[in-house]
Amino acid sequence: MAAESPVIERVRRFTGWYIFAAVLFIVLGLAAIIEPGTAAVGVVLLLGWLLILGAVAHLLATFKGGDTRRVLFQLFSAIVFALGGVYLLTHQLLAIGALTALLAAVILVAGVFDIITYFRLGREHPSGWILLNGIVAVVLAGLLWYQWPSSTAWAIGTLVGVNLLMTGTTRLIFGLAGRRLIKPATT
Question: What does the pLDDT look like over 121-171, one tens digit per residue?
Fold first, then answer.
């Protein structure tokens, strides 16, 4: 058996990681759907800590020097990021409500972009899954806005879960399609 070309090997390795990430998205999506309250708190905590890390990064950037405006901007950014992170970590239930409204907007935009991507891809075989993912995202965003603010108790966990599940499924199909495309080149 002849050795595979470096390109085929890289594509195989890339699609392997792509499929692994897709399966991880599916597992995380199912976990979030099963425990939406826990997932919502997890999202808020993750975002809070990411903001704190962003504050540290901005604070460190103030020591790089530069003109006064740059240093003041970095310092102000560090303070805003730190306040936002601390607020999310200490007021989780209020943060869940605000994030629910923001999440609806983000899911809506992601869904619209997936629908646009479908029309840009033409009628390629797995592109129908991108269209389905986009339609599901738009419908979920609409449901969320329709029931907000009463939807905050379940919304973030469930919607993030469904979105992760659909995204994982879509990416899994694309990864497997990529594997099928390189199969003739390896035989």
Answer: 776 666 778 888 899 999 988 888 887 766 676 777 887 888 889 889 988
Q: What is the domain partition of the chain in residue ranges?
A: 6-186
pTM of the model: 0.61
Using an 8 Å Cβ cutoff, are 165 and 26 in contact?
yes
Structure tokens at 101: 């409204």
- Long-range contacts of residues 80-84, Cβ cutoff 8 Å, at least 24 apart: 80/55, 81/51, 81/52, 81/54, 81/55, 82/51, 82/52, 82/55, 84/48, 84/51
Closest CA to 115 of 102, 103, 127, 101: 127
Per-residue model confidence as pLDDT tens digits over 69-102 = 888 888 999 999 999 999 999 998 888 888 888 8
The size of the chain, in residues, is: 187
